């Protein structure tokens, strides 16, 4: 139960970082593709914050140097590709349906919550475990 609450708190923090980064990006740059640039900025900042919090406090995972850290972050990012599509799809759907910043951020919030629920399970099974890379490869070997 404590892990669930902590994970939820970290999701709230990452969501706040994401949405705040998006809002700052839109305010700083209002030119062509500003919507997509803001979503990318939010995604990147939220990803880094969530990775650092999850690695240390949820999974208590220790990396063995910069190469290992990079590999874990890459794998963490790969697991987030599907959940990022859920987030982006929901946020952009709300933007195109309602045409307001508030509703776009509402869609982003919904997409992030759904994505984080799925992402926890992916990270627990494939990222923050020993031998995760070989387990990850086995899944793709079976699929091909």
Describe the structure.
86% of the residues lie in helices and 0% in strands. The protein has 144 residues and is mainly alpha-helical. The protein has one domain (2-143). Helix 2 (34-58) crosses helix 3 (66-98).
Q: Which properties best describe this structure?
A:
86% helix, globular, mainly alpha, single chain, 144 residues
Distance between the termini: 38 Å
Q: Please report the number of helical segments.
A: 5
* Largest β sheet strand count, sense and barrel closure: none
Shape: globular
Structural class assignment: mainly alpha
Beta-strand percent range: under 5%
* Subunit arrangement of the protein: single chain
Number of domain modules? 1
SSE order: HHHHH
Average pLDDT figure: 88
List the helices and strands and how they pair.
Layout lengths: L1 H27 L5 H25 L7 H33 L2 H27 L4 H12 L1
Helix pairs in contact: 1-2, 1-4, 2-3, 3-4
Short account of what is shown:
The protein has 144 residues and is mostly helical. The chain has one domain (2-143).
